[in-house]
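Annex B. Sample input.
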Amino acid sequence: MIRKSIALLALVVASADAFKFMSNWQPPKILTDEQKVKMADMEERFGDKKLVVITGCSSGLGRQTVKNLLATNKYHVVGAVRDVEKMEAVAEIEEFDMDNFQIMECELNSFESVEKFCNELEEYQLGKPIDRLLCNAGVYQPSLPYAKWSVDGHEQTMQINFLSHFLMVSKLIDRMRDAPDPRVVMVGSVTGNDNTVGGGGVYPIADLKNLDGFKAGFNNPVAMADGYGFIGAKAYKDSKLSLMMMSNFLHAKYNKNTGIAFSSIYPGCIAETPLFREKRAWFRKYFPIFMKYITGGYVGVEEAGQRLFQVAHDPRCSKSGVYWSWNGGPREGRGAAALEKSGQISGGGGAGGGWDSIYENDQSDKVNNLELCVDLFKTATDITGAQWPDAKTFTSPCPTLTVISTISENMIAREELKRMAERPGFNSDGTPIKLGKRRKAALIADKVIVKGVLGNTVGRVGKVAGRLLLGKVPETATTGSFQEEKPLEEEQNATPQSKETSSPVAEIEITQPPTKTIDIVNQGDKSALEEEIFDQVFANGKKSDHSSKEKEWKVDVEEKELATAS
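Annex B, continued. Sample output.
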């Protein structure tokens, strides 16, 4: 029995996730009466149902998705919509279960409205984590000869489709961590993926280029992410490309440390949908016929709603970093059978393919451009004012590790200060890096306390013990350099100065005669800081009467004791 226990323990420790099972361990909590009431209210409101948030669900794809979610009786859905009255009418027509469906206003044309929605949602949650966030809402304005602007002064298509969803995810991501299987789903498009005929063969092509428009602030009159002229269809395609890129980036940044699965989907070409309400009448009439009988890519809105529902519901879709698509053409009338089998239909194939036709689609080089993804994240954060949580990985709760980490952290900080004091490095223009006031104060404190007091007592003993125990440094460790280290002043003179980045200020600073030592702290400031630190450290003592370069101290208590003894 003992051997089996030891073997089991060894197996657990050897695993990469050895301590992960301890991540949710918490000491017993004593709940207040207010907390007990809140928990009771949460249980009454949600029961054992998963909490889903979906944008744009008063029509089209979103409407059908909510219909499927509520049909399972396993979800409590919050619909974030622009027009509350319209949503109420749709809910009545569709006979939504209003005990499990909550309508909230969210105008994606306004960042303020998005933030207000997130705050109201937090109150409504009563502490319950969000299980699903479906970023579905979107607009398509291909016929416009000019841009329309949001409340915040940004081009509407990009703000509604991408930027406002970007802000919303940043607000809600921390409220999804505690859910057992949290998922964020971005509704992408084949038009944003240029490795397909629909995305790469029809002008205009989705392309963010170098994001010059975003880098310039993306404010009116800058209407495109790339900074060039406005085309309505390209604005839509660029917004979908941005959504798919951001899904990949958030997967890389947050999936491992939050457990949230980030994915994007293309539910198919929904040729008969309000998304095309701004297209001309002839297009709305003949485009569905073209998709049905010429390309075979037609997908009805009901089937598309089943597909978005599947990614939210199907256990197979809990994988992160995936762009989900479906094989085959449409096959209507399979929704009821799919729901009865909890999203599992066997024997798929042919037109439509059913739920078993889902697969992980390939993404284009633009979607997978990691460097551009980073720039997109940074610029979108600046434009929206989003505040993202730190991406912290799980660490073992072992108390020994905690103590050792605390000790080593202080030691590392001190050694790094010493390293920077001796050789602080250079800026891009060749000038020495200047230390801030905090680091200057830390250096002086290190000199007064550690080097001055401890260094002459404990430090000396430690050095002697170290030499005796460790012995001499091997000669091979100190020899073998192919060049002698250059003096600091020679290195300063040898630092190249780019003609393109040169400025009169930089030239003045560099042409000053170099010194043999780097004066990290102004001598006047240094003396003042040393005086202040000395007085704080030895608050119960006083300085010696005789002048000396090194500060000395005496303790009043000792003098009083000596006086009493005499």
